[in-house]
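Dock glutathione; give full complex structure.
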Amino acid sequence: MTTQYRLYGALGSGSAIVELMLAKAGVGYETVEAAPWGDAAQRALLGQVNPLGQVPTLVTPSGTILTESAAIAFHIHDHFPASALLPPPATPARDWCMRWLIFLVAAIYPSFTYGDEPSRWVDAGAAAELRSRTDRWRQNLWRMVEAEAAIPWFLGDTSSAIDLYIAVMVEWRPRRAWFQDNCPKLAAIAERVASDPTFAAILDRHRAAAASPLPGS
Ligand SMILES: N[C@@H](CCC(=O)N[C@@H](CS)C(=O)NCC(=O)O)C(=O)O
């Protein structure tokens, strides 16, 4: 049992998204470096809290284990409503936010699951093709997100968890330069998030790890 939130994560991974959420909520947390691609000790630690062996995984002060970044966003919003990770319930903005937040985790995120290490899923001869096809498909998906994005934030005048996802995910394949050329609204949202010094510190720490084997590298 811990008295504060404990985030199992890895530098350069989606645990950066949850760090941004916790920072937006003003909530303290401790981190456990538990990279799925790390050594056996890190993987064993992660296996204790997440049978999928994925980060981010958050353990709440009461000991509840939360896997799935969207579930974590809902938890943080419910417990710290001032974080405003989601718009008010039963509003068109809430529906819009839910649709595209779930799109990010249900459509885009899995493209890394299958493309990052294709040899987990297909024979060596097909690995390069699985990688390139999932990479290409992800570009289509991001164009769909771009087409729906408002300014200055994805939802318009108010920021939400979606902006935090975007700020982290533009660092992953197809990477920031592609977003600047093909999804300028999303690139601008990412820059707007990073203009907050607290968020920038988190993003910089994770970006500095970009040389190591990462999801999306
Ligand atoms: N649906 C999960 C996806 C999490 C995920 O895929 N995380 C990556 C790191 S960014 C991971 O742990 N990959 C290792 C694996 O899937 O084995 C979420 O939204 O939290």
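Observed: The two ends are 34 Å apart (CA to CA).
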